[in-house]
Specification:
With 424 residues, the protein is α/β, with parallel strands linked by helices. The chain contains 18 helices and eleven strands. A six-stranded parallel sheet has the order 3-2-1-4-5-6, with helices on both faces. Strand 1, helix 1 and strand 2 form a beta-alpha-beta unit. Helix 6 packs across helix 8 and helix 7 packs across helix 8. Bound molecules: oxidized coenzyme A. The site of oxidized coenzyme A has 24 residues, from helix 1, helix 4 and strand 5.
Length: 424
């Protein structure tokens, strides 16, 4: 049995943030029913397509293990079906633009009337305040949540990161809120509202920078490279390049082959307890006792000199050799792994972190599997549903529609035609 077996999710999510949340719930064993507009469905089905006829990888990689029902929830018949689904599900998850669910007629009060035990979970760009009505995408959240102002180099533009901390990050936050509310419901019997704002989620992930903002009031941030370089600090936390965000200075350093390989680099951390081992590896045994280098505080104004010297050593080996030598001495480091290297990594395949999935239209493709491993509830990744693939199945099995009711619904136009497999 799976951890969330018996929990039924009404998945009214689209694009990335909401679908990552409901995909996790599905991986933990919930029955996730994705409601999509007839004809088009989740907009990502057609975005960034690599194969003309197949649902995009964007969609397939965010919607595994779900069932799809098509329903126009702005029609009278469609609303009735949605009401029936609300009565049959434990959780409704949505990430529409602010107010969309209310405009559809499904306010929190109405949902409570229909099913007082229902948990209603929402992602919005912002929490209550001046921006509460704004539509938000990933990079907007990165910019407004503190990530962009603190990412990049001191003298360069603010940068967004490739990690989807606004979308997938907030999906994770919401998922935790949902399982927590499910747990509380076992004691109260009541549903509740769960909300996660993308700005809040990004800020939560950037909390070390809010820490530094407050430290700044008491003097320069000595572990930032700009301290040793003699650049004054302003009144806001600056961008710190590849400086470590913690108390152990680190940098990205060149490894052998960097001239031709954009990923021939390693992240090198000068952890204080292994400083002597670092000195031996790079051939500077004198630095173990030299007062300018022997202690972490003495090294802070000299980080450029320290890392330039270490790089003279890393440049002579490829990144995996560097990692091997450093790991043997417990020196923390991380080679810069490309997506190609990750896709081919046998150990990630073995743990199910990267999975190969079979799809009837696109054939086989790679996806990221469940990064959270439960020993009593292992995840089997199954392909994403075609648009409306389970409409009839859900209407019959979950909502107990008979042939006549189904025929009437078809005639009303509230459910579209289920997608056909290319082979059919
Ligand atoms: N049947 C009928 N209508 C449906 C429907 C269905 N099954 N599903 C959705 N709709 C309607 C909605 O009711 C809404 O209608 P109204 O605008 O008339 O009320 C409409 O479709 C569009 O919804 P939307 O405004 O949410 O979609 P959008 O593409 O314009 O905006 C986004 C997308 C992501 C900017 C917006 O949804 C948003 O800000 N969401 C919250 C933040 C978020 O999750 N962002 C992350 C997105 S991932 O990068």
């Amino acid at each position: 049995m799976k951890a969330l077996e018996g929990v039924r999710i009404l998945d009214f999510t689209h694009v990335q943030s909401g679908p990552t949340c409901t995909q996790l719930l599905a991986w933990f064993g919930a029955d996730v029913i994705k409601v999509e507009r007839p004809g088009t469905g989740d907009i990502t089905r057609g975005q960034l397509r690599d194969l003309a006829e197949a649902d995009s990888l964007y969609f397939t990689m965010l919607n595994h293990n779900k069932r799809s029902i098509t329903l126009n929830t702005k029609t009278e018949q469609g609303k009735k079906v949605l009401e029936a689904l609300i009565k049959s599900c434990d959780v409704l998850v949505e990430n529409f633009a602010p107010g969309a669910l209310d405009r559809m007629g499904f306010t929190w009060e109405r949902i409570q009337e229909l099913n007082p035990a229902m948990i209603v979970a929402s992602i919005k760009g912002f929490g209550p305040g001046p921006y509460q009505d704004c539509k938000v995408y990933e990079n907007v959240a990165q910019c407004t949540g503190g990530a962009a102002s603190t990412t990049g180099f001191r003298d360069g533009l603010p940068l967004v990161t490739g990690a989807q901390i606004g979308d997938s990050g907030t999906g994770l936050h919401l998922c935790l809120g949902i399982v927590t509310a499910l747990y509380q419901r076992t004691k109260t019997g009541r549903g509740q509202k769960v909300t996660a704002a993308m700005q809040d989620g990004v800020l939560n992930l950037c909390r070390v920078k809010l820490r530094d903002q407050q430290r700044l009031a008491h003097g320069p941030l000595k572990e930032y490279s700009q301290y040793g370089e003699g650049f004054e600090f302003g009144d806001a936390v600056p961008r710190a390049g590849n400086d470590s965000g913690g108390g152990q200075p680190g940098r990205i350093l060149k490894c052998k082959g960097w001239e031709n390989d954009p990923n021939a680099y390693i992240y090198f951390i000068t952890q204080a307890p292994v400083w002597e081992a670092i000195c031996d590896v790079i051939g500077e045994p004198g630095w173990k006792t030299d007062p300018d280098y022997a202690t972490p505080n003495a090294r802070l104004p000299r980080l450029n000199a320290v890392f330039e010297r270490i790089e003279r050593w890393t440049e002579t080996h490829d990144k995996f050799e560097v990692m091997k030598v450093l790991n043997e001495r417990d020196i923390p480091c991380g080679p810069i792994l490309s997506m190609k290297e990750l896709a081919e990594d046998a150990s990630l395949r073995a743990t199910g972190t990267i999975v190969e999935v079979e799809h009837p239209v696109r054939g086989s493709y790679l996806s990221v599997g469940n990064p959270i491993k439960l020993s009593d509830s292992p995840t089997e990744v199954t392909r994403s549903p075609l648009l409306g693939e389970h409409t009839e199945e859900i209407l019959r099995d979950v909502l107990k529609f008979d042939d006549t009711a189904l025929e009437e619904l078809r005639g009303s136009g509230a459910i579209g035609e289920p997608a056909k497999l290319a082979a059919e």
